[in-house]
Write a structure and sequence with these properties.
By secondary structure, the protein is of the alpha/beta class. The protein is 36% helix and 18% strand. The chain is built from nine helices and nine strands. Strand 1, helix 1 (14-25) and strand 2 (33-39) form a beta-alpha-beta unit. The longest helix is centred in the C-terminal third of the chain and has 16 residues, at 213-228.
Length: 293
Amino acid sequence: MRLGAVVITMGNRPDELKALLESVARQDGDPVEVAVVGQGVRLTGLEGLLPGLRTVELPENVGIPGGRNVGIEAFGPGGREVDALLFLDDDGLLERTDTAELCRQAFAEDPELGIVSFRIADPETGETQRRHVPRLRASDPMRSSRVTTFLGGANAVRTKVFEQVGDLPGEFFYAHEETDLAWRALDAGWQIDYRADMVLLHPTTAPSRHAVYHRMVARNRVWLARRNLPAPLVPVYVGVWLLLTLLRRPSGPALKAWFGGFKEGWTTPCGPRRPMKWRTVWRLTRLGRPPVI
C-alpha cells in the first residue's frame, strides 16, 4: 500500500516543520511521499529533507480544509497516485517509527476502514486532551475504538474515500470540516477507527487561540447540520449546541462572535445538501454518538 502525507503550513514554525518531516522520513517500510502546502508563504529550507518532496505555494491562506484539498491534488486527482494519505499538523511529530506500517496494516486488514484517527499526546507530559479523543466517552484515551469523526491534523484517509464522497469542505475554512467528511464517509458505508497506538506528539493548546474560533465554530455547526442531517434533526442538533454554548458561559465578546457566526450559518450558502440516510443516523447512534450532539 502506497502512502502519502499532506502538511499545510503558514511558515511560522519552520523548525517544527523540519522535525515533522524528519520523523516521516524515519518511518519503517516503503518511504512515505510528502506534499507540503504553503498557505500564502514561500517554502524554503526543505531541500534534501525527503526524497521526492512535493511543494505547493499558494498566493494566500485558503483555510485548513482548502489547503489540505490542494495537498490531496498534489498526488493526482483525488490523491489517486497513492492508496492513503496522512494529514499531519506542521507542529506535530510522529513519536514512533512504525506508524506508517500500522496504517498500511490497518487498511489492508479491513477493506471497509476508510479513516484512521491518531492519538494526540503532549510531547512533555504525554497527556491527551479530552477534546482530542473523538468520542463522547473520552476518559480513557488509551482505548482504541470505532468512532464517528476524527482529528484533522493527525489522521490517515484511504483515497478511495475522496473518490467516492468528495474532498473536505473548503468553504468551512476552519472547524468541523473533519466531521463533515466523516459523516459523508459513514453514510457511504466506510468505517472510522481511533487508534491509541498511532501517536502524533503535539503541544497542548486551546482551540480558542484562533481569533476566528467562536464565529467559525458556530457558523460551521449550522452548515454541518444543513448539509448533512435529515431535516427533522437539523433544529435538534443546532439547538443542542446552542444550549451547550450558553451553559459554558463564554465571555461577552466570545458570545457576540458566536451568535454572529450562528446567524451567518443560517443566512449564507453552505454548499450542497446531501442528507444522510436514517440508517446512518442509527449507525452513529449505535457507535455512541447520535448526530444531535
